Amino acid sequence: MPRVDVLERCRKIRADENGILVGAAIGAGLMAEAATRGGVDLLIAITAGRFRMMGGASLTCMMPIADSNALTARFARSEILNNSTVPVFFGANCMDPRLDLDAFLDRVRDWGFSGVTNFPSALFVTGELRDRMEAAGIGFGREVELVKRAQAHGLATIAYVQTPQEARVMAQAPADIVNVNLGWNQGGTRGVASRLSVSDAGSWVRHMVETIGRANPDVLPVIEGGPITTAEELVAVCRESRALGYIGGSTIDRMPLEDSVSDKTSSFKTMHVLRSRLDRLEQRLERSPIEQILPGTSDAVRMAVARTHEAAGSELPVLIIGEPGTGRRQIARAIHRYGRRRNDPFRIIGCAGKTEEELAAELFGHRGPEDERRRLGLLEVLQGGTLAIGDVCQAPAGLQTQFLDIVSSGRMPRSTGSEGPGPDIRLLFTARPAGMADGIDPALHARIGALEVSLPPLRERPEDIPLLARQILDSIGDRSGRAAPGLDPAAHRALISHGWPGNLDELHHVLTRASMTTGDGPIAAAAIKHALGTSHSMTPRPDVVDEKSWLLDGLRRNRFRRNQTAAFLGISRKTLYNKMKRHGLLST
Looking at per-residue confidence, does 266 or 504 come out higher? Predict the structure, then answer.
């Protein structure tokens, strides 16, 4: 990939308010392939990564045990370049005094690399030896010269630095990307203790980023190494420092590989234990199929599943709260299907858009216009069964009073004209969260809300989206009679970043539509974005009736990111801030 294309790719990430550049400094084709599948933006072929794959520590690359540049060229050209779809940078060792920089850069370009970086670096040498290297012309100054000359050879550059002075020099060279290295990675079996905590790293990197920006605002600042070992720690440091992204070495290859291989080997050695656990899990799934109706691993879903189990084992009225598309009706059916009335009839009646007379006739019965025979209502027809009353918040006030009479006294309301005790029937109710404030009679809510199942909207559990997408695509494959399509990494990111106002129903629609326009390969991000359509699906809900609710709805849809929320609501960031301040929302 030419330098101009590499820089355009990086600048697009910088222009995206939520963008983050992720690079992988690796030493094997398998690691490069896995990182690319995960969505990495660029690769760096370095000897430290190669030595890690041999079982050594990263710092082995600083030892005079191999021709560093020859080793990098050998494995990168044979294992990485031919199979890579992202830019690949060459980790160049400038410490060899015999190295002709211009001839070397020509070879790197002709081999097909997109760029070059100064690694292994004199940065990791200190004291008198570092001084002697600089005096001999094989230290950091020679690495600066490498970066300066690379642009003339059509190569992009990443510059490793550790101090503000080094950052300033490389930014002025100029390097395209300046990588603030926090030292060798801690963690795993071969990590080293970091001199910085995560909080200290954030403050230090911010100082470095500001130094880089003053020297050359066009340079892209990233970070690597030190105490950062998890995505959460990376987010904390990037938020504090305003760095564009992260280059992972040991955190991307050695540490995940150590953990996964150790865990897999241990699982094989303890197969008899795992088998017994699997048997118990299978038995649990046979007893608890509700988890298949409401899949997910988020805390909100686990709580909803637990409450649904509790509701299925009870005879109390149940209130199911959730936005449209979250599966309220499916949960109502599950409560009936796995309760003691499972062999008795089940019906759902909706309250939305119906008059009090229409609903009363359906529920309590009425007399026909041409004869005197009384037609039975659902409360009489479903004797012994379950009736789910949908959108109870939209039921007329008179009917809500009658519902309260039934669940409170166990008798039919006098106004229906029926005599005797109430019906032997299980009542379930569904409602939207937005309607709970003023749409339901407080006394009725108090009576039916004792056993409540709250279904979270999809935007509040993005961690469940990959699992839900996989299950939906599997079902699409089963119905179509062909192999279930997969999702490429960018498509996963497109799904997770969407706000899902239509919740599960919208996710099912989008995946169905995207799969219809995809051939035999995985579904690409373009197909997902096309299926999502225009922004009309992200307009605020019609039941948001005041400014505070309008602001909260926009903030929640955009995960409380203010720039994104302001754009979504069609106002400036300053206006959003002022409105949040006026309504006491700045702490959200």
Answer: 504
Of 306, 310, 330, 332, the C-alpha closest to 319 is 332
- DSSP output for 300-314: HHHHHHHHHHHHHT-
Host H or E run for residue 180: strand 177-181
Residue 221, helix vs strand vs coil: strand
pLDDT, the chain, mean: 81
Residue 187 predicted with pLDDT over 50: yes
How far apart (Å, rounded) are the C-alpha atoms in residues 360 and 200?
67
Q: Are 356 and 398 in contact (CB under 8 A)?
A: yes
Q: Tell me which residue of 530, 507, 506 sits closest to 517, measured CA to CA.
A: 530
User: What type of residue sits at position 448?
Assistant: I
Closest alpha carbon to 1 in 101, 99, 92, 112: 112
Tokens, residue 95: 């410490």
Model confidence at 413, pLDDT cuts 50, 70, 90, reads low
Nearest residue to 288 (alpha-carbon basis) of 337, 322, 327: 337
For every residue of 255-288, DSSP letters joined together read HHHHHHHHHHHHHHHTHHHHHHHHHHHHHHHHH-
pTM: 0.50
Q: Is 329 exposed, middle or buried (0-12, 13-18, 19+ CB in 10 A)?
A: middle
- Banded pLDDT at 540 (limits 50, 70, 90): very low
